[in-house]
Amino acid sequence: MASPARGFDAELTADTNASAWQVRGPAGAAVLSLRRLTQTLTLAGATRPDDPRDPVLRVRARLRIDSDFGTSCQPGTDACLDELNASRASEFAPLFARRAVDLPYAYVELAGLGRGAVDLRAGRQLLVDPLGFFLFDGVLARLNVARVASVEAYAGYETRAGFPLSNGRFERDGLLRADRADWDRSLATSVLDRAAAPAVGASLDVHPSSRVEGRFSWRRVWSADGVVEESVAARGAVALGSVARLYAEAVYVVPLATVSLGTAGIEGYPARGGRWTVEVSRVRPVFDLTSIWASFWIDPTDELRAAYSTPVGRGNDLSLAAWGRRYALDAETLPNHPADVAAPYNGGASASFRRRRDRWDLAVRAAFEGGDLGVRGNADAELRAWVVRGVMRVDAMLSFVHVRDALRPDRALDGVGVVAGVMFPLGRIAQLAVSLEDDVNGIVGQRIRAMSVLQLRNIP
Amino acid sequence: MNLVRAWLSWLAFAVVLSVAAGARAQAAADADEGPSHLIFPAQRLPLRFSHAGHLAIPSVTCTRCHVPRAPRPDGGDDLLPREATCAGCHPVDRAHPSTIAQSPRGGCDLCHEGWTAAAPMRVARVEVPVPNLHFAHARHADVACERCHATVRTVRLATRLELPGMRVCIACHRPGGARDACVVCHVTQPDGRLRTRFEDGVMNPPRWMTGLHHDADFWVGHRASAAQDATRCAVCHSDGECAECHDGRARDRRTHPNDYVTAHAVDARMNGDRCGSCHRASTFCANCHQRVGVAPSSPVSARGFGRFHPPAAVWTSAPVTSQHHGVEARRSMRSCTSCHSEQDCVTCHASRTRGGGGFSPHPPSFMARCGSLLRASERPCAACHDDLDALRMRCR
After folding, report:
1. Structural domain boundaries of chain B?
2. Domain limits of chain A?
3. Exposed, middle or buried: residue A160 (CB in 10 Å: 0-12, 13-18, 19+)?
4. What residues of chain A, 233 to 262, have a C-beta less than 8 Å from chain B?
């Protein structure tokens, strides 16, 4: 019989993130001064049983208010964008919201019932599995079977835009949905009415030994007009002793009869520490089946990637990677195709070094990718150092960027950016970070970005 | 040729920079490779002592000196011998500390480094911080000391290097063995997750935990770990940490350094799917594109900033070249949806009977699977086609 819990510990966190920056339109004319204030309130609590094998009750919730105070007017004129306003159709921007309130998650979980056999969760929850992110309002049950497998099943409604406290971030791409009850029907006809989307799904997670693990996932979502989105996924890994591991993954979209993701790779662990990986993958994006994009001709992208990470002394990591990417266009099937329409290629390499010490962290990163689609290179150095331990930390970053877009030569860019900031712990419950960023490049000239983050934790 | 030269230059720069930094770090690497400094913080032991010497004496056992006592007020398990324990063999006359007893030798400086007769009552303080761990020697009384402190019989002063690493613990705390939940040993936060941030740094899964160690590039490929078992991530990470990055509201300078807003287009073009892990093109991207006047759906007041795409002669008109919008769309449809609504495409791609140009956007093999799509939803079909009955016949 489970012993009674010793108590319930909870932590309340409030983050306030303010930033101000400028954006110039791609054609170079518009400069918008943007200011954003994002506030989040997070509650995380759990019971503390005497015996770790006893059930634990957890509560998790997060509320966010995203306020946009930036200008939305064309410089030099009085023409401004506005939220939904039927009387000013020419200024109407359906996605532009001054204030957005949403609930990224809020659930109650009872974990470890029956000596760890069953977990139950109810509320708004973000699911992560081989099918990707899925945010839904509903219930989830997990059954752990004899330490070698677990079965997970869930049902509820996918969290879609247009409903209160929902921003639809994790909906499939392709459509805009909103509560159009108060809209003039002639406005923004491309925006669909909100509609509830019931969903069910299940996963089987198997790990018959410490060397083998696998996961199979299935999900079905009923959208408006009877559209059924259904996907299945499988991923697995097999350890080859303690020196290497083979893994593979595939996601299949049933109505499209398409594999949207396929990955296979091998990961090795050298005796002196570190890790190397060689991986091939094919990705074909899938869009909301209610949209026309789902039936468009979409070619996959293949990637071969090799990476190596190694420790270089205590607290230091060095990572190197190289990749080649093929955009698998099939020229033969193109109507009126000329000879130059062939599968484009890009290739790149990156190197990262991280040094962590008691009083400071240093990260140096450099990456370059180039090929038929353009060129991008960047190099960054980032330092965080305590000037007075526990009192003031200095954050600094220096970065360079180099961009050449073969399709849009006028967007060529070489830039340098500098960030300087400080962070002050304010007692044991708060910290304040302020930073100023100065970026200079040929397209926008000089741009300043200011950011401040205030965090309050363990609010009584 | 210029591209190759630029590519090689950048690659050389990256490799030289990283290797130089790595070599520098290796040269400066701390020789102490013992257990985690976060779990067992650095100690200060200004003592002279030889475990090897003492344990060579038959009558001396571990428990003769290390007697379990009540936990310290700060929660630590206190087994350090006190002066009285040592004085049993090495007598010290506190009234006359300079007096050195013989056989066996006594006196303060026998054990305390730096003791001088000039300041006889002053010795350097021994500091053994409480480990960031739940552990009670009393509950492990049936386990031989050397099973965890394997090298203690061979060293002089036992330091934190003689403390066990996690591998030693999970030899017993494994599935089917002693309790194996992380929280059995690791300290937790109020919400039940493991505490990972300490004064001296951030806790990271050890390298031998295959695929879980967060090395410098872990963030690039952490999807695989999360997809396999997100509950494993949740032992340390909160839902908020996922949401913070993956809903794209807060900018991470590591992924978006410099003036990323101005430079992002080429990234989206080269690898737009990666953008999709944090940004939804149809909302997040479209919102900004609409606001700066680049989207066709931008309000009239925000438009008129010129053409973003290449000239119509190559972008939309036949013949199809590598710069034709159809080729770009097939390769990077997500980029299209970051500005365009369905209606922008339907205008030309609808059937002629619907007033469009009749340019089919479907792939060559589409007829083989259009039935399942039509059954899933008629809406997208009806956007371009008039006669859905005819479609149903063709798409069986």
Report:
1. 260-340
2. 328-460
3. buried
4. 235, 237, 239, 242, 245, 247, 249, 254-257
